[in-house]
What we know:
There is one protein chain. With about 280 residues, the chain is an alpha+beta fold. The protein is about 60% helix and about 15% strand. It has helices at about 1-55, 70-80, 115-125, 170-185, 185-215, 235-280; strands spanning about 90-95, 100-105, 130-135, 145-155, 155-165. It has a five-stranded antiparallel β-sheet with strand order 2-1-5-4-3, sandwiched between helices. The two termini are about 80 Å apart.
Amino acid sequence: MSLLAVTLIIFNVLAYNYFKFSLYRHLDNLLNSRAAGVTESIDTYWETEKQAALNSGIRIEKFSKINNINFAKITRHWVETKSNDPQLLNIIAQIFDNHGNMIISSIDIPELQRFSIQTFETLNQGSGRFENIKIHLSNSKPLEAKTFTTPVKENDKIAYIVRLITPLSEINAQLTRLRMILFGLLPLIIFFTGIGGAFLAKISLAPVDQMITTINCITSQNLRTRITIPNSKDEIQRLAETFNSMLSRIDNYFFAQQQFIQDISHEIKTPLTIIRGGVE
């Protein structure tokens, strides 16, 4: 039972960590994919507006996304339009300018209007960043969430920043259920396995108990008694055969000893009778 408990604990820990890693990796891939979709959609809006302006004769130099009021209007319009998109279900979308100032957020959360210094340094290097954060909402406990922040560049400069936020409540609920299954059922599995093991051990060793009872009853007067050999075709059957073989050899030794004593008695009886007659 101890060996089984250790084995199951190691297996459960490995399975739990692998499942947890898979869930978080899937979530990271989902946020990365959704961020790419948000960027592509916003750029499509922007290109449409730019083409309409070009058709109106406006110079192209004025169509930079960096610190552009019109681009900020387009992103606000996009967020307001796409906030109920099924692909952004349970995902908060936020758009920031190149200085980290918020342009628009699908849900207004005051504590998520700025970046951490580490995040901003990562963005300046051109890489996205994943973070686990806690959101403190009113009249409720802190909500664990996952964020993915990625820069969108224009001419090798950050034009704007996209940040997606999704709560971890569903993943945490799945991990909690998995812990209950893996570790909550562990004592029951070990307990019932121990009972089953004890029952099987008792059945398996029942022939040994019978052998012990039979051996304890064998004396010099009943050396011809033999152990009942079980038809188990295993070590217990070979043990019973070995005991019977040993009993046969002992019986032969006793018979030979008795025969020797009888022969000696017969050989001595004749001269003793003559001596007795002479003495008488």
